[in-house]
Amino acid sequence: MSSEPIMQRDAESGEMDLAAASSGWNIQMSFMLMGLCFSINHGCVTAVLGLATAELGDDLGGIQSGVLYVMYTMSALFVATSLVHHLGAKWSLVWGLGLYCAYVASFLIAVKVPSVKWPAAIIGSGIGGLAAGWLWTAQGVYFGRSCERYSAATNTSIESTTSWLASIFAVFYVGFEVVLRLAISFLYEFGGDAFVYTVFTAISVSCAVCMAFVPKEPESLSSEQQRTRAKSPLERVVEAGKLLATDTKMGWISGFEMMFGLSSSFMNFYINGTITKAALGKKNIGYMTAILPFTATVMAIPLSRIANSFGKAPVMIFGCANYLILALVVIIISDSKLESLGWGLVFLYILGGNGRAVFESTNKAMVADFFPLNKSAAFANVIITSGGASGAAFFIFPTITKFQMGVTCAAFAGWAIIGVFAAFRLYWAEGGGGDRLRTYTKLVNDVGGNTNQNRNSHGDDSDDPFLAMADKKAAKSDNDESI
Predict the structure, then answer these.
(1) Highest mean pLDDT of the ranges 138-142, 170-174, 396-400
(2) HSE-up of 182 (CA within 13 Å, CB side)?
(3) 253 class by beta-carbon count within 10 Å (0-12 exposed, 13-18 middle, 19+ buried)
(4) How large is the angle between the packed helices 158-186 and 24-49, nearest 10 degrees?
(5) Count of alpha carbons within 13 Å of 86, Cβ hemisphere only?
(6) Closest Cα to residue 432, out of 479, 465, 475?
(7) What distance in Å separates the CA atoms of residue 404 and residue 408, rounded to the nearest whole number?
(8) Sequence-separated (6 or more) residues with CB below 8 Å from residue 335
(9) What sign has the CA pseudo-torsion 247, 252, 256, 262?
(10) Is the separation of the CB atoms in 295 and 301 below 8 Å?
(11) For the ranges 250-264, 398-412, 431-445, which has the lowest average pLDDT?
């Protein structure tokens, strides 16, 4: 047995240093500890968020959730990169998880001291939103550095490593979201609001404390990455705005991002806070909201296979269609009839889960495909449009009717469908298109540029833009060889 210590300590800070661990198992365990603390803490937040309107009422619940999302969006754009650059990923996570607890604790204060529930709810959501803005940036840095070290320690490809560690994190993240949403309803069997929020506050604080004992992230193995200067908040916003102004695809897909933000707010604000609360009672809302992440998880693999076989566009349309149906159902069917369904309301949450599955997976893959050289600016736009739409919705929804809320969500779902079609047409016209183009190009190359033979064996594709691009590639290849 090796006498080498499992973890060594950084000479300057005295902290356990993940970079010093030569074993891939040590690196994986450290990443899993980070993922465990992050996921349980975040699961507490999402669980109580589903009860915001039901617990605090339409006005305060809407404003509290709106402040949370607005602060998250602003923090992600203006604070996250610089803060993580200066504090490092681990300590950004420690502070982020610690401040995130303020949102959960605000519910406890609101039910224990009703006279201060307004300032408690708004201040708590502001602090929590501020923290949420940099949590994902810090998690991404910890993830990336861990992948580099694990790949080097185990002599595996970086692609295999990222897939493996990402799958571990996904199991924790989604799994604990489901468990804690279920738990919030289960705990109502043993006590009232104060008991439930006390337990959740204690859990979230414990995770933040435990995060302080997780080994810090290692230095990057890439010297170029270590020399890279953190972009200022103004630079990030300018880059995002420039991409939106110069690349039409970004404008078209913004409809999908805003549809997701509005529909998610509609689920939390109206369906949870009004329909499900009246149909099943506040204590059972957690059971219903758990269906959202569970459905998203179950659908992830089938949707991935469909995207690989038929392209991402059909999957994106599927996501839009689910949110469109969700909005139309609530518009057309009266509240009393929906409430009479009781547990039959599960179908609304399945629709929402399908939409979330597309947003979390295929949508983000599409953004990466569309903007390979401008990913940072592209995802900044996703944060602005989806987070901004959610925040705006929570402020606006308390002032309008159910019909107006539903029509707004349905209209954005319709725009999202049109936008997805338009964006993919532009992408294909620019030479994208993935598997079909690569297949045609391979066929052309295999026969030395004999495109007529390919047309004869695959039918008359004279008007096919993908084959036209393959023909041009083959012609260019022939010209290069003749030179």
Answers:
(1) 396-400
(2) 10
(3) buried
(4) 40
(5) 9
(6) 465
(7) 6
(8) 274, 275, 278, 402
(9) positive
(10) no
(11) 431-445
Residue whose token pair is 């953190």: 230
Q: Please, what's the b/e burial string for 228-252 (b: 16 or more CB within 10 A of its CB; e: otherwise)?
A: eeebebeebbebbeebbeebebbbb
DSSP of 289-329: HTHHHHHHHHHHHHHHHHHHHH-HHHHHHHHHHHHHHHHHH
Instruction: Take residue 158 and report the two structure tokens written for it.
Output: 């970086």
What is the per-residue pLDDT across 164-214, written as a single tens digit (0 to 9) for each?
A: 888 888 889 999 999 999 999 999 999 999 999 999 999 999 999 999 999
Are 85 and 226 within 8 A, CB to CB? no
pLDDT, tens digit (0-9, with 9 covering 90-100), for 4-57:
333 444 544 555 444 444 578 889 999 999 999 999 999 999 999 999 999 999
Residues 63 and 397 sit within 8 Å (Cβ to Cβ): no
In degrees rounded to 5, what are phi and psi of residue 16? -65, 130
Distances, alpha carbon 76 to alpha carbons 139, 145, 296, in Å: 13, 20, 24
Please name every residue paired with 8 in a beta bridge, in sequence order, or none if there are none: 17
Under a CB-based contact definition with an 8 Å cutoff, are residues 145 and 162 in contact?
A: no
**CA–CA separation, 272 and 263 (whole Å):** 12
Q: Which two tokens stand for residue 429?
A: 């016209």
Query: Could you identify the residue written with the tokens 């083959």?
Result: 474
**Which residue in 340, 54, 297, 346 sits closest to 188, CA to CA?**
54
Report the C-alpha gap between 443 and 449 in whole angstroms: 8
Residue 13, token pair as written in the block: 């800070």
- DSSP string covering 56-72: H-HHHHHHHHHHHHHHH
DSSP 470: H
Contact 319, 379 (CB under 8 A): no
* Arithmetic mean of pLDDT, 314-340: 97
Maximum alpha-carbon separation in the chain:
84
Using CA atoms, how far apart are residues 458 and 451, in angstroms rounded to an integer? Answer: 10
Q: Which long-range contacts (CB under 8 A, 24 or more apart) does 240-248 make?
A: 240/77, 240/377, 240/380, 240/381, 240/384, 242/377, 243/371, 243/374, 243/377, 243/378, 243/381, 244/381, 247/371, 247/374, 248/422, 248/423, 248/426
DSSP state of 400: S
